[in-house]
Amino acid sequence: MPTIEVNDITIAYKVRGEGPLVVYTPAGFWTMDRTEPIVDAFVEEGFQILVYDRINTGNSGFDFQTNDLRTIWADQLHA
Q: Minimal CA–CA distance to 72: which of 32, 62, 3, 12?
């Protein structure tokens, strides 16, 4: 599974399909593995989809020093 470093934290992600890019962010603390039915539907409709595990979820790294996850999640999406 590919990863990227954002603010010294490893973020796990995957890209599937071909076509216009859609970035799908799992809700709350869901992991990208739980999004397979949605990812499959986008791919079948001709989209390329990027999905990732947010910080403190799934295969991404953990940061117990922050209380502002919304800002961190926005930084990860920007990267």
A: 62
Cα 46–chain centre separation: 20
User: What CA–CA distance (Å, rounded) separates 50 from 24?
Assistant: 6
Other beta carbons within 10 angstroms of residue 10's beta carbon come to: 14
Q: pTM for this one? A: 0.73
**Could you read off the pLDDT of 21-77 as tens digits, one per residue?**
999 888 777 788 888 999 999 999 999 999 998 777 778 777 766 666 666 667 766
Strands 3-6, 9-16: pairing kind: antiparallel
Contact 52, 79 (CB under 8 A): no
Q: 19: left (phi > 0), else alpha (psi -120 to 50), else beta? A: left
